[in-house]
Amino acid sequence: MSVRLPLAFVLGVLSAVLVACGGGSSDKLIPASNADQISNDLADLRQAIDAHACDAAQQKLSAVQRGIENLPSSVDARIRRRLRDGLQKLSARVPVDCVATTTETTPTTTETTPTTTETTPTTTETTPTTTETTPPTTTTETTPPDTTGGVTAP
């Protein structure tokens, strides 16, 4: 049965081991410069996880691993083993605890009502101009023929 340890606990244990071991006068302890670097990388790892910056968290996890692997061979084997065990547990927790923040996007529906433009055709009535030409009236007087027998009155 696997026991899942919280990330904060694992980070705390690793930091405590480093603080307890670093800076001592014994050759079997972790040198202060190495302990400081690993502690700083662990702090950066915690910040990356808290910020959900998973790529940065993986990079810091790799930095912690390199720091542990690059410890001088004079460091006590038991301390190295504890650090590697803690790193293994930490490696299992980082992907679980560092979940990238996802922004949930709700699709926006925009309803467009078509604009209807009613165009009333313009009717132009053109009244035709009629020019009527009336022919000039000519009055012709005609004297009717004299039917009285030829006598003309004086």
Can you tell me about this structure?
- The protein has 154 residues and is mainly alpha-helical.
- Helix content is 46%, strand content 0%.
- The protein contains 4 helices and no strands.
- α1 (7-21) runs antiparallel to α2 and α2 (32-50) runs antiparallel to α3.
- The chain is rod-shaped.
- The chain starts with 6 loop residues before the first helix and ends in a 57-residue tail after the last helix.
The Rg value, from CA coordinates, equals 56 Å
Report the major sheet: none
Spell out the helices and strands N to C: HHHH
In which range does the helix fraction lie? 40-55%
Structural class: mainly alpha
Number of helices: 4
Q: What's the overall average pLDDT, rounded? A: 75
Name the quaternary structure: single chain
Overall shape: rod-shaped
User: Strand percentage, roughly?
Assistant: under 5%
